[in-house]
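Collaboration report, partner site 2.

Our partner group contributed sequences for two proteins of shared interest, and the home lab folded both. The records are reproduced in the order in which they were received, starting with the first partner submission.
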Amino acid sequence: MNIDRYFSTRRTVRRYTEQEVDDNLLTRLIEEATHAPNTGNMQLYSVIVTRSEEGKRALAPLHFNQPSATGCSVLLTFCIDINRFNRWCEINRADAGFNNMQMLMAAAIDTSLFAQQFNTLAEIHGLGCCYLGTTAYNAPQIAEVLHLPDGVVPLTTLTVGYPDGESPASDRLPVSGIIHDEHYHDYSDADINSLYAEKEALEESARFIAENGKDTLAQVYAEVRYPRATNTQFSESLNEYLDKTFFK
């Protein structure tokens, strides 16, 4: 692998061969991933490793039955975890104040860095990975399947395996639309149209618009893929779950 071109050419992999990921390799990659930066060196995260077909089948519906959830060698659920640190504090007679928004944010950042460091390491070692954004949608149900105690919240999931064929590249916005020098410069309508022009011109974008009976790609994203009613429903479910298990 050409490390100099790794980030500019990396691909999300959703189809895998039947080759299994070796346990020793997986453990080594997870151990190396723990060296990612984290808040106060507290490592407020855990990862649940699901290898069994039974385990993957139990989780698959909660990830909307995406094929990669059952087609992968390993399913990794990365979790916010204040339970372990709270237990350490309790045993050592320390008053831990971690069940609040500040520490939820800290732990979410730590968990994301841990997951991404694993993702990078895995791909460098010839594996393919795909993030499943559905984890937060069905966090309460995933927590039940994985027997997560209070203070442990599923945040994101990675499917991992050996790539089956070449995966397509994903489009990205021009970096000029991401960088803001010194302070945030808000966008004019012309800026927005220019930044999204390439995405909107893609053949697959035209197909998405036609398939969903919409006029614009923005409508597909906002009204079909991530509609307000669904966002509200999942938000309410997640808030209720966090109130019961994290902010208690």
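Second partner submission, folded after the first:
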Amino acid sequence: ESQRLWEQAAGFGADVSVRVLADPSAAVFFAVASILLGQSVRVARPWNSRHADAELLRHLRQEDWLTWIPQEAGVEILPGPSARSRSLVLDLDPAPDSGPALAVLAAHLPHGARFSGLSRLRIKESDRVSAMLRLAEACGAEVRLSEDELSIRPGADAPRLGQPAPRRALRLAAEGDHRTAMATGVAALLHPGLESDQPACVAKSFPNFWEELACLRG
């Protein structure tokens, strides 16, 4: 029997309630922002602990990349000591949504980062491996890509954590990918003048992303 695409009958599901895992992917972007800026970020929305990006956040906590303080509504995230003392090494296969943001982070870490498990990133809303390259290079990083491993280190003139670069106008292609557009916004926290060519595409997962991100600029 040949495979068939899902067929949605008209009106079907109008009165049905569906439970899905709350997606913590957006929290990763703000956790990266916390490390980049060297300041705390409050995240109020809860997420499901079984989601793959929740596991990534747990890993970053266990390895002292993040510190967080539970609050009555959500958590307060703070940068941990590992950001300035060691290289970030991650398999991105379980959490491909976080790749673009982590590329921005890697571009500013004193010891850089090495990412493996890239194949799934190539078949998301866009080729996110290419997006990671664009983002890292726009942030002044040196990159090296093999078949399934990407190394990113800050270049000689790249700004360090908590130190914004001089303003320069640069527009990066999002290729319709909300995660790339969001990562561009996070990068702009240290690179004023950097912007996405498709800011509206964040509506797929986070319609008020730009308003929330603006809170970090004071």
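Feedback sent to the partner group on the second submission included the following. The mean pLDDT is 88. The CA atoms of residues 164 and 190 lie 4 Å apart.
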